[in-house]
Specification:
The chain contains 16 helices and eleven strands. By secondary structure, it is of the alpha+beta class. β1 and β2 form a beta hairpin. α10 packs across α16, α11 packs across α12 and α13 runs antiparallel to α15. The longest helix is centred in the N-terminal third of the chain and has 24 residues.
């Protein structure tokens, strides 16, 4: 009796095992085809770009030409206030509904900014992209800026400013930009203390009406179907179709020595000249020069003396701990190139003089082909390896789309780097280093030399 009951079960088990064996021996599925970047321009002037990577998660960013360089003396810090206002109520959603709605969909939404762009990003499941983008579209298309909600961002703005004060590298970067350009690119990413609490709903609305136009925007997606993203861009984003806001040309001034003395054991300083814009033919040559001088350690907790000329030169001048790195910031119409140094206050003069000496040596041709080749390899590796991170892929695609409505692939960039010669490096070094310098320093400046004592 028991054997008759077990026979059907035995046959089912044998059938299951045979099916599993057949599944394991079957040919693997064909790999999905590699997609190319697709770029379209909508009838209202908005650029839509996408790269389908067949991911179950979609990442979408809206880049807008509305960074701090578009601010005026009357509304300084308004872009900082807008970054902090991304979670406030809109005409369609309350602040609670906005936050809760994105969370329920399993997504995330963040706002950030640079000197040239305001950036809104969402990460979500592919099937929820339309719903998640609806919240993003409401933030940029239908804000209402209730006075009591706008006033609530003051505390967060104060926290941001306090964090900057605790990070001297960021603070000195802001100082050297202000000294080099005065306005436009000299406008800080952070609101000045005197403007905290002065950003009214009307001021925020006026800035958005001026800058948040369709021709100033690029909607970029990773892990999305291009036609779907184009349709969502047309259906969801109801913004002004006017031209981009007027952008005052960045005029490098130079010759300024900005100093802020704060008693303490450490000093931080930056010395820069005008570098390269994003459209310049010298852009990649300066990238190689940056790696040649030292763009940060490649080994965690390493001294980077082997590959950094700056660190190697300074290490011969002092036995005290220090940090030096090449400073290279590029924008659409200008750039800054130089050095950033941190050291014990009493050693800052020694560190800066040794670092500046390395810059001078390169202008005199003291550079070997092997060093240039190593720097080229480091730049190519940085470009190609950064594309392993989907966040970097999205940012690269978005920046190119919003500024040029075109795309240059990492492989094309690497090929251009290969063609750079040692003579080109020396030539661009002479052009940059012989420019008018700007200096900013922060901390105990009792032993920090002035600009005219260094160059």
């Amino acid at each position: 009796m028991a054997s008759r009951l077990l026979r059907p079960l035995s046959r089912r088990l044998q059938s299951t095992q045979a099916a599993v064996k057949e599944a394991h021996t079957a040919a693997p599925p064909a790999p999905l085809p590699k997609e190319a970047v697709k770029i379209s321009k909508l009838s209202n002037g908005m650029v839509v770009a996408s790269l389908e990577n067949n991911s179950p998660v979609s990442r979408v960013a809206l880049y807008i030409k509305a960074g701090s360089r578009y601010e005026t003396l009357q509304n300084l810090g308004v872009s900082h206030a807008l970054r902090l206002s991304a979670n406030l109520s809109t005409k369609e959603f309350s602040a609670f509904r906005l936050t809760r709605g994105v969370e329920v969909l399993g997504g995330s939404l963040e706002a950030s900014g640079s000197r040239e762009h305001m950036v809104y990003k969402v990460d979500c499941l592919r099937d929820e992209m339309q719903s998640t983008l609806g919240y993003l579209a409401s933030i940029v298309s239908a804000p209402i800026f209730k006075p009591w909600e706008v006033s609530s961002i003051e505390d967060r703005m104060a926290v941001d400013m306090a964090c900057v004060e605790k990070q001297p590298g960021i603070a000195v970067s802001e100082m050297v930009h202000a000294a080099a350009y005065r306005d436009s690119l000299g406008n800080s990413l952070y609101a000045p203390e005197v403007m905290v609490g002065k950003h009214t709903p009307g001021m925020l609305t006026e800035f958005m009406q001026q800058c948040y136009t369709s021709q100033s925007m690029a909607l970029v997606g990773l892990g999305t179907d291009h036609d779907t993203l184009v349709q969502l861009g047309e259906d969801l984003f109801s913004v002004s179709t006017g031209p981009p806001a007027d952008k005052a040309p960045a005029k490098y001034v130079g010759g300024v020595d900005s100093r802020t003395h704060i008693p303490g054991p450490i000093s931080t300083a930056a010395i820069v000249t005008e570098g390269s814009s994003l459209n310049s033919t010298d852009l990649l040559s300066l990238g190689v020069l940056q790696r040649l001088l030292g763009a940060g350690p490649y080994v965690k907790w390493g001294s980077d003396i082997a590959s950094s000329r700056l660190n190697r030169g300074v290490a011969q001048a002092t036995q005290m701990p220090f940090s030096t790195t090449c400073f290279n910031a590029n924008y659409t119409d200008s750039g800054l190139f130089g050095l950033l140094a941190t050291a014990p206050a009493e050693q800052m003069g020694t560190v800066l003089k040794a670092a500046v000496g390395q810059y001078g040596a390169i202008t005199k041709g003291d550079v070997q082909d092997a060093d240039v080749q190593r720097a080229k390899s480091q730049l190519k590796a940085a470009v190609l390896m950064s594309m392993e991170d989907s966040a970097n892929v999205l940012e690269d695609l978005a920046l190119q789309a919003v500024e040029t409505a075109a795309y240059v692939s990492p492989d094309q960039v690497a090929a251009q780097v290969d063609s750079i010669t040692t003579d080109q490096i020396v030539k661009v070094a002479k052009r940059v280093f012989n420019g008018k310098p700007t200096m900013a320093s922060l901390g105990d400046l009792s032993s920090t030399p002035h600009l005219d004592q260094l160059v």
